[in-house]
Design brief:
Layout lengths: L1 H25 L5 E9 L5 E9 L11 E6 L4 E8 L5 E8 L6 E3 L23 E3 L9 H14 L3 H9 L2 E7 L12 E9 L14 E4 L6 E6 L6 E8 L4 E8 L2 E5 L6 E9 L2 E9 L1
Length: about 290
C-alpha cells in the first residue's frame, strides 16, 4: 500500500513537471505567442491550429494589437491581420468568387498536440473580441451567439488551457472565403489566443519595412526589395485577379528580380513568406 502511494505521488509530480515544461516550451517567455485556431462555421468542428512566435517588446499586454487590412472584393479580395508595431503577418487569406478563397497564413493547421482535447474547459474571456469579415466589431446578437459556440469548441483544447495558465487575450474572426452572398458551408471561425511576455526585453527591433516592388506597372521584369527579410529562404506566390496561382518558387536575400514576361497583361498580387512573416503587393503587367 505504501509503495502504491509513493508511485501515485511520484506520478503526480511527474505530471506536474511535464505540464510545466510543456507550458514553458509552447508559451515562450520573452516573446509574443499567438495560437490561431480554425472552427467550421456550420458544424463547429475543430479544423486544427497553429502557433506563431514574435519578438515584439512594444506589443500590448492588455489587448490584441492587430491591424486588420480588409481588401474589399470585386471578384477577388482578401484580409490580413498583422501585429501593429511590427507589421508581421498573423493571418492572411483571400476572398474570391464562388467560395474558392484560401488561408495562406498560417500555412498548416494541426490536429496533433497541443491541439487535442483535455478534461478541463476554459471560460470565455469577458473581453473576448468579435470581428466581422470586414474587420469591424460584431454587434449582431445572433452572430455573437454563434461565435460563442465556436469558443465552446476550443475551450477544452490543451493549447487553450496552456494560454489560460499564463494569462491571455482572445478574438474571434468570421472568415468568409466567398464574395457576395454569405455562404455558411465554406465559412470559418478563426479564434486567436494571444499572450505577450516580455519581462527582460531591452532592444527594440523597430518596424519591419514593407515590400517595395518596381517598376509598377511592369512590362516583363519586376524587382522587389524586402528590407525586413533575413537570410532564410523566401517563398513567393503570384496570383492573378481571380485568385488563381500564376507562379511560385523560392529565393534568398532582400532583393530579387522576377522575369514575368510569360504573364498576360492584368492585375496580380505577389506574396512573399519568410518563416512566419508574410507581405504582399499588388502590381500591373502591361
Amino acid at each position: 500500500m505504501k509503495n502504491l502511494k509513493a508511485i501515485l505521488i511520484l506520478t503526480g509530480i511527474f505530471i506536474s513537471l511535464n505540464i510545466y515544461c510543456q507550458n514553458d516550451t509552447i508559451i515562450k517567455e520573452g516573446m509574443v505567442t499567438i495560437a490561431t485556431l480554425k472552427v467550421d462555421f456550420s458544424t463547429y468542428d475543430f479544423d486544427g491550429g497553429d502557433i506563431s512566435y514574435y519578438t515584439c517588446p512594444n506589443c500590448a499586454t492588455d489587448s490584441i494589437p492587430f491591424t486588420i487590412d480588409y481588401q474589399s472584393p470585386g471578384d477577388f479580395g482578401g484580409v490580413t491581420f498583422t501585429l501593429s508595431s511590427l507589421q508581421d503577418t498573423v493571418f492572411d487569406a483571400t476572398i474570391i468568387w464562388m467560395g474558392t478563397g484560401q488561408i495562406y497564413q498560417p500555412v498548416d493547421f494541426s490536429l496533433q498536440e497541443p491541439f487535442t482535447n483535455t478534461n478541463s474547459a476554459v471560460n470565455k474571456p469577458q473581453d473576448l473580441r468579435y470581428i466581422t469579415p470586414e474587420g469591424k466589431p460584431i454587434t449582431d446578437t445572433n452572430l455573437i451567439n454563434k461565435a460563442d459556440s465556436a469558443w465552446n469548441t476550443i475551450d477544452s483544447l490543451e493549447i487553450t488551457n496552456l494560454f489560460e495558465e499564463r494569462g491571455f487575450k482572445s478574438a474571434i474572426y468570421l472568415y468568409p472565403p466567398t464574395v457576395g452572398m454569405f455562404n455558411p458551408d465554406v465559412a470559418k471561425w478563426i479564434v486567436f489566443l494571444y499572450h505577450q511576455d516580455q519581462p527582460n526585453a531591452i532592444d527594440n527591433p523597430g518596424k519591419s519595412a514593407r515590400l517595395q516592388l518596381f517598376p509598377n506597372p511592369a512590362k516583363g521584369k519586376v524587382s522587389v526589395h524586402w528590407d525586413a527579410a533575413g537570410g532564410d529562404k523566401i517563398t513567393y506566390r503570384i496570383f492573378n485577379a481571380y485568385g488563381k496561382l500564376a507562379d511560385q518558387g523560392e529565393y534568398f536575400g532582400k532583393q530579387h528580380q522576377f522575369d514575368l514576361s510569360f504573364l498576360s497583361p492584368g492585375l496580380y498580387i505577389l506574396k512573399l513568406t519568410e518563416n512566419k512573416k508574410t507581405v504582399s503587393q499588388k502590381f500591373l503587367i502591361e
